[in-house]
Amino acid sequence: MGFAIKVNGNTHNVDVDGDTPLLWVLRDVLGMTGSKFGCGMALCGACTVHIDGAPVRSCITSIDSIGTSGITTIEGIGATAVGAKIQKAWIDREVVQCGYCQSGQIMSASALLASNPHPTDSQIDDAMSGNICRCGTYVRIREAIKQAAQSNG
Ligand code: FES
Ligand code: FES
Fold first, then answer.
1. Chain mean pLDDT for the chain
2. Which of 28, 30, 63, 105 qualifies as a FRET site for 20, CA 20 to 30 Å off?
3. What is the pTM of this model?
4. What digits encode the pLDDT tens for the residues 51-80?
5. Does the beta carbon of 50 lie inside 6 Å of ligand 1?
6. Pocket test for ligand 2, best of 100, 107, 142 (most atoms within 8 A of CB)
């Protein structure tokens, strides 16, 4: 079945079954491998992308549920003002260890700061609670989010 999906501002026509998870379309059809597969059950956050600015787990989001909504992935988030601040803070704070979870972490953090430019510690913890990091980079993630929030003025 054919679907036209808008990813990072570009429309792509894909021919897949309607129940195909968005993650597979991004990775296998469009070749955007920045979004990662971890659990496939909305438990780890590695596959997080934005749909109309909201963080969603692309591993459980079927392609036929997206309609005309705009999708943003880790490949495109740096083009947004908040995404650029988050990525700079991630580099400054040397957040990344193995890196596997980090695109999902950055997508959740970007969605948080886009909706709440100055989150409290508990709001950061709530927003990031669904993103698991096996390397335990949580302290640096929180520091980086705070640094990016400070640059919001
Ligand atoms: S792969 Fe989607 S939440 Fe784990
Ligand atoms: S940096 Fe390794 S899983 Fe998070």
1. 97
2. 105
3. 0.97
4. 999 999 999 999 999 999 999 999 999 999
5. no
6. 100
